[in-house]
Every structure is written in C-alpha cells, then in structure tokens.
C-alpha cells in the first residue's frame, strides 16, 4: 500500500449505532437514515419502506455528482452534499462503508 493512502477504518455495528445516536440527538435533526455500502438502509428513524423510497433519489444524485466530478478531477471525492428548501435541508455524507442521510429543520427559515 502507498504511504500517502490513508487507511479507512472498518464501520462496525457499534460505530454505526454511535453515529446514529449522535446525529439524531442534535437539536434540529428530524430524520436520520444510514445506508450500507450497497445503498440499503441499515438504521433509520423512519419506517424501512419510507427510508428506501427516500434514499433512492439521493443515491442517484450522489452517483451523478461523483461521475461528473471525476471528469473535472479524478482524484477528488464527494465529502458532503447539502440540499436546502425553505423549511428543511438534507445532508448526504458518504464514506467508505456507510452513507448518512440527515433531514433537519432549516432553523433560520426564509421569510415569505
């Protein structure tokens, strides 16, 4: 292995549970979905069927972004995707083994 290539730690069940609990305890967080490396929900605050339907479009957006970014700079990687509406925002945070999807209230909501 190359010296400049960082080792990515394994994502154990304990790690996933700890990340899940930490994120869902934050003040403005409404929903949390953790996906495995295949894109399937493994932990969620919402019903499993809803988590599957919710995560699908975000995984598709992620794939398109990663393909587009690789054409610009093949050495770069997606660290976080943030999508915001007037009242909510969704954060997509991928890593080597899991992807974290968080829906939170946009606490500084835009005025109408």
TrEMBL record:
<dbReference type="Pfam" id="PF03259">
    <property type="entry name" value="Robl_LC7"/>
</dbReference>
<dbReference type="InterPro" id="IPR004942">
    <property type="entry name" value="Roadblock/LAMTOR2_dom"/>
</dbReference>
<protein>
    <submittedName>
        <fullName>Dynein light chain roadblock-type 2</fullName>
    </submittedName>
</protein>
<feature type="domain" description="Roadblock/LAMTOR2">
    <location>
        <begin position="16"/>
        <end position="104"/>
    </location>
</feature>
<comment type="similarity">
    <text>Belongs to the GAMAD family.</text>
</comment>
